[in-house]
Write a structure and sequence with these properties.
With 286 residues, the chain is an alpha+beta fold. The chain contains 9 helices and 9 strands. Strand 3 and strand 4 form a beta hairpin.
Length: 286
């Protein structure tokens, strides 16, 4: 309940500052959270980043203002954080499908992105299997692609990335050079202010492993909350992610550290009803 109140307070704060220079540090302080953890929680619960939510709300308010007043387009653009009529027009057209000046026409159809609200619901009737693991830094070898969370691009792009590496034999090649047969799907270098992150499909390797032309990166030491997923991909693991952020974090006393997080896929049939894999989330005490 306390967490729900904090998220509501953060939404109230954002809504009151739509005409100002909103700062993620200030928003997170309202929720008594670190900036990274707040942004990660917000995205996992709502499906949009904080930056995208603010952008959509501002464009909704701008459209309403243009439709009912004679204020100049330039003034509306500046009011809602755009430094030029051109950048405002581009964003406005992408959101509403029309130009800002067209929004003044009688009977014109506009799109609205309503203010979000949180409501208390009782969950947790089903157990969550997890363990706390301390793991030293380790090196991985694999392939990576940079994604943006804008307009859900990552939700479309990551499955295609997996399809590519599974089809062209990359995942099999990586499994052969790893210290075990597990393949990892890693989110790292997450920047929710810029709405970008790097996604790796990789394997853990030893210090003397030949990367065989693949890229290498280091996953830093961390305390991990490790959650078990049972069932066919991708639905089963997506449900685990939802429960981690909707149920576990709000009641656990932990928060996300901002370090890389990953999914661990052992050998087996990922479409099987009994397929077991894991979600590893880096955590720290609040």
């Amino acid at each position: 309940m306390e967490w729900l109140i904090r998220m509501k307070d953060a939404l109230d704060y954002m809504e009151s500052k739509m005409e100002d220079n909103l700062n993620i540090d200030d928003i997170a302080k309202v929720a008594f959270s670190s900036p990274f953890h707040f942004q990660r929680m917000f995205y996992m619960i709502t499906g949009v980043s904080v930056a995208d939510y603010i952008r959509r709300r501002r464009l909704t308010l701008a459209a309403q203002e243009l439709a009912i007043s004679k204020v100049k387009v330039l003034d509306v653009a500046l009011k809602y954080g755009y430094d030029s009529p051109e950048s405002f027009a581009k964003a406005f057209r992408k959101a509403h499908g029309i130009s800002p000046s067209t929004a003044r026409e009688p009977g014109i159809q506009l799109k609205a992105f309503p203010r979000l609200s949180f409501h208390l619901s009782l969950k947790g009737d089903k157990e969550m299997d997890y363990k706390i693991v301390e793991k030293e830094e380790f090196t991985v070898v694999g392939k990576s692609v940079d994604f943006t969370t804008k307009d859900g691009e990552n939700l479309r792009g990551i499955p295609l990335f997996w399809q590519e590496v599974n089809t062209d034999g990359t995942s099999d090649k990586l499994a052969k050079i790893g210290v075990n047969k597990d393949v990892l799907g890693i989110c790292k270098d997450m920047n929710y202010a810029q709405e970008t992150f790097s996604y790796w499909i990789a394997v853990e390797v030893g210090p003397d492993t030949d990367p065989q032309g693949y890229a290498t990166t280091v996953i830093p030491a961390a305390t991990w909350a490790v959650f078990t997923s049972v069932g066919p991909m991708p639905h089963a693991i997506q449900k685990v992610w939802e429960r981690i952020f909707q149920e576990w974090f709000p009641s656990s006393g932990y928060e996300h550290t901002g370090k890389p997080e990953f999914e661990l896929y052992p050998p087996g049939d990922p479409n099987a009803e009994d397929y077991v894999c894991e979600v590893w989330v880096p955590i720290k005490k609040k």
